[in-house]
Amino acid sequence: MRRRTIHGVGVFALLAPILPTASAAGPPITVVAAEFPPLTTNAGGQPGGVVLEVVAEACKRAGIALEFSFLPWQRAQLEAQGRNDVLIIPFTRTPGREAQYLWIAPVLEFHTVLVTLSRPPATIKEARTRVVGYVRGTSFKDEVERAGFPYVEETDDDVTNARKLKRGRIGAWITTDLMARGVYRQAGLDPAELKYGPTLGPVKVSWVAASHAFPKDVASRIAEAIDQMRADGSYQAIVKRYR
User: Which residues contact 57 (CB under 8 A, 6 or more apart)?
Assistant: First the structure.
């Protein structure tokens, strides 16, 4: 487990421009995440990524100290479900998860896509002839089941999927339009060689979420701060750096 605590401007001053904030008070809230570049990253032990930056800036404005913990994705979800002082990012809101979590604020929209190195399939039907790979415990499972893919391999992280695609161990990689290039680059590979097939399902939204035991007043402060960021343009400035 890797942790990094951010109080007030602290380490986050390296991630985004310094903006006026309230003073952080009380024990830090733990933010659990996995590495899903460019949404959440932990390169060299330095937390970053577009979703992480938005949430960290919002909490800085709300006077909430944070501690980041990068974990295997399924373990991160168990941490969020079982504690009252944990946020989870980047977390897709799905029907299967709806009742299990407190959905604090939407952060980022994305599409689920099929990524290949050879000629991409033109249709979902054509893609069913390929072995597809995705990260265990993610919302991608819903798309796999909906599309009826018969040949599936799960992994614990997306870098492994990128390397499996390069080595020909899977024929298509299920990920997001925002993540594919960053993950492939993190795997030490050239994202210019990636080819994109059809999207799977409708536009999805990555949220910051927590258990139902998470303090509702703290959740409201985070949501209000993110709304404020959208209104003053700072949210858009963060997102633009990753597009």
Answer: 12, 16, 19, 225, 229, 234, 238
**C-alpha torsion 178→180→182→186, nearest 10:** 160
The residues pairing with 133 across neighbouring beta strands, listed in sequence order, are 153, 173
For the stretch 110-136, pLDDT in tens is 999 999 999 999 999 999 999 999 999
**Contact predicate 72/83, CB 8 Å:** no
pTM here is 0.81
- Which tens digits make up the pLDDT trace of 54-104? 999 999 999 999 999 999 999 999 999 999 999 999 999 999 999 999 999
Kindly compute the dihedral angle of the four CA atoms of residues 199, 101, 208, 176, in this order, to the nearest 10 degrees. -20
Provide CB contacts within 8 A for 157, sequence distance 6+.
34, 35, 72, 73, 135
Measuring CA to CA, which residue among 175, 174, 163, 183 is closest to residue 131? 174
Cα-Cα-Cα-Cα dihedral sign, residues 226, 227, 232, 238: positive
Query: Are the beta carbons of 91 and 73 closer than 8 angstroms?
Result: no
The amino acid sitting at 40 is: T
